[in-house]
């Protein structure tokens, strides 16, 4: 037990605060403690907690009670003194309903008589706001623009983009703003150029709490813009030109090497001829000396045979000296001619000329766009055996309607697809009744769900469906808030990725995203699900002519409605047209 000095003594003391910053969560409570050293009673001291200035009071304790009159307006009614250990020199101010403006530095001031001391402490406020809202807003350059927005975060959140394999993407743009309460909102954008990326995830991270919220969205491959024809022509021409230059360089290098070898061979031959010429000159001098030394006494005439031999050597030497410059001149002329033709080397289709290299042929035609799957699409048809008695399934098993005597099926008029799904990706497109006079539901469900009597369509019960109701177009279960669509869809695409647990819906006429359920862990067999509740019209499965690995591809030859070829879309039903001025082609209906 530390020794407590009597009240009113003027002994000196120190005031100590926390050495590490304190962390407070938005809307919660936090204590800012300070203490004296050595320990002494602070009951009769003047205590004050303030911000950057002494006059910016957070709490004032004087004459044994709190003094609320001089407090800053933002702390009125939110602060109080913790007095349990005040007799031991420990005091703390309690701040309730922590706000973003409470973040920053504080000072605590202790005074006894004429002596006073103070200490500083740091408070870090943190809060996690809303989950990110991710949507596809349309084409951008040569990719698809995806936007991510959230609000109510403090401090400024960190935005991260990830692909389906976990790879990080750099943000295209990012903007932050603060509201009147000091909370941050963020809007970030990303341009995705890789057609095979599939899912894109936007995550927001709070650097103080270490918490994050993330949302993923699936980007169908047909939403990417097709490469313009001039770009394809340019890159093919550039590749062909590069191959041509490479071949011409190789041809010139080979020709230059051949000429160097020919010049070295000629120099070797000339040296051999010079050595032979010197040998002949030496032999001539020897022959002439012998002829002079052996002259006959009959006169100045020597041996006739030796004279003829010497004369022959002289003619040989003259011919050699004459032919040497001629051969050198011939070699230089040939080199000059070869050099002249080197700069004008041309390729020819018949293989003639100094260079005979020719390209191997025109490049083979390449398909521009995504990969084509060699696997045919299995069509979706209805199972008449699973149909409710209030429904009529057409003979081709692609259209379901309500019987004329059943204006309202009471919520149980459903039918399943004929074949179940246990793996992979697949999709189908359904033409739905026009307008809001009919109520209908479509999507997928598990094999073992309840479809008789009254039942709830929700992911917890094995249903991943959306539909048109009296309240508007909603995912199930309904929460009373319809999706904010620009117009009701006429042709709905259902996209199922079994391994990834993803179920998404698209307006295939507008080429826009409607809704995606949170990721699920599928097990067992899933079946296409269709339900007509009331109204007129029918649900019709559109025939699919072909598709790329189960991804949505608008078919120009489809007998169903012909949708706009979508370079972009809007997510979560938000208003964001794909391209200004681009309108979908006039729809055609399923037979």
Can you describe this structure?
By secondary structure, this protein is α+β, with helices and mostly antiparallel strands. Helix content is 18%, strand content 31%. The protein has two helices and 30 strands. It has helices at 229-293, 304-342, and strands spanning 14-16, 22-25, 30-37, 46-50, 57-62, 65-66, 79-82, 90-95, 104-112, 115-126, 133-140, 143-153, 158-162, 168-169, 173-178, 184-192, 199-205, 212-218, 391-393, 399-402, 414-416, 425-431, 439-446, 463-469, 472-475, 491-497, 502-507, 512-516, 526-534, 538-541. The strands form six sheets. A seven-stranded antiparallel beta sheet has the order 19-20-30-22-26-27-28, with no helix packed on it. Strands 2-10-9-4-5-6 form a six-stranded mixed beta sheet, with no helix packed on it. A five-stranded antiparallel beta sheet has the order 21-29-23-24-25, with no helix packed on it. Helix 1 (229-293) runs antiparallel to helix 2. The longest helix is centred in the middle third of the chain and has 65 residues, at 229-293. It starts with 13 loop residues before the first strand and ends in a 50-residue tail after the last strand. Mean pLDDT is 78; it is low at 1-9, 296-301, 326-376 and 547-589.
């Amino acid at each position: 037990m530390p020794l407590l000095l009597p009240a009113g003594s003027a002994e000196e003391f120190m005031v100590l605060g926390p050495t590490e910053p304190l962390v407070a969560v938005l809307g919660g409570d936090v204590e800012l403690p300070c203490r004296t050293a050595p320990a002494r009673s602070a009951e009769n001291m003047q205590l004050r907690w303030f911000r950057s200035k002494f006059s910016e009071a957070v709490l004032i304790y004087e004459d044994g009670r709190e003094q609320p009159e001089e407090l800053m307006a933002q702390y009125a009614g939110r602060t109080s003194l913790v007095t349990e250990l005040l007799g031991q020199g420990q005091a703390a101010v309690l701040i309730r309903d922590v706000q973003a403006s409470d973040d920053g530095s504080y000072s605590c001031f202790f005074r006894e008589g004429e002596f006073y001391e103070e200490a500083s402490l740091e408070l870090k406020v943190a809060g996690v706001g809303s989950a990110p809202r991710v949507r596809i807003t349309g084409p951008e350059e040569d990719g698809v623009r995806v936007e991510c927005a959230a609000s109510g975060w403090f401090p400024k959140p960190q935005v991260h983009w990830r692909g389906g394999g976990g790879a990080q993407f750099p943000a295209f743009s990012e903007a932050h703003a603060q509201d009147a309460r000091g909370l941050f909102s963020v809007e970030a954008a990303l341009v995705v150029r890789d057609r095979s990326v599939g899912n894109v995830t936007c995550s927001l991270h709070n650097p103080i709490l270490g918490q994050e919220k993330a949302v993923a969205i699936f980007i169908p491959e047909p939403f990417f813009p097709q490469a313009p024809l001039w770009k394809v022509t340019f890159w093919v021409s550039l590749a062909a030109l590069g191959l041509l230059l490479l071949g011409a360089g190789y041809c010139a290098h080979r020709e230059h090497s051949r000429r160097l070898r020919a010049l070295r061979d000629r120099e070797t031959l000339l040296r051999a001829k010079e050595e032979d010429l010197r040998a002949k000159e030496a032999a001539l001098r020897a022959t002439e000396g012998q002829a002079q030394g052996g002259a006959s006494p009959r006169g100045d005439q020597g041996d006739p045979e030796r004279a003829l031999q010497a004369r022959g050597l002289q003619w040989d030497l003259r011919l050699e000296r004459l032919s040497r410059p001629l051969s050198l001149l011939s070699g230089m002329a040939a080199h000059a001619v070869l050099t002249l033709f080197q700069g004008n080397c041309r390729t020819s289709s018949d293989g003639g000329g100094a260079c005979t290299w020719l390209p191997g042929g025109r490049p083979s035609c390449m398909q521009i766009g995504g990969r084509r799957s060699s696997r045919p699409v299995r069509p979706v048809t209805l199972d008449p055996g699973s149909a409710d008695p209030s429904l009529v399934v057409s003979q081709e098993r692609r259209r379901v309607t309500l019987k004329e005597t059943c204006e309202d099926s009471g919520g149980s008029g459903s039918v399943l697809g004929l074949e179940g799904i246990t793996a992979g990706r697949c999709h189908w497109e359904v033409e739905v009744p026009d307008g809001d006079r009919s109520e209908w539901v479509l999507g997928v469900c598990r094999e073992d769900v309840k479809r008789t009597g009254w039942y709830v369509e929700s992911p917890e019960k094995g249903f991943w469906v959306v539909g048109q109701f009296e309240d508007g177009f909603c995912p199930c279960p309904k929460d009373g808030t319809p999706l904010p669509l620009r117009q009701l869809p006429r042709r709905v695409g259902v996209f199922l990725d079994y391994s990834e647990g993803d179920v998404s819906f698209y307006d295939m006429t507008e080429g826009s995203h409607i809704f995606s359920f949170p990721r699920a862990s599928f097990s067992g067999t899933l079946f296409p699900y269709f339900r007509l509740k009331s109204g007129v019209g029918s649900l019709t499965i559109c025939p699919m002519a072909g598709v790329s690995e189960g991804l949505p591809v608008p078919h120009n030859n489809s007998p169903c409605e012909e949708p706009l070829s979508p370079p972009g879309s809007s997510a979560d039903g938000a208003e964001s047209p794909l391209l200004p001025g681009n309108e979908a082609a006039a729809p055609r209906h399923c037979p």
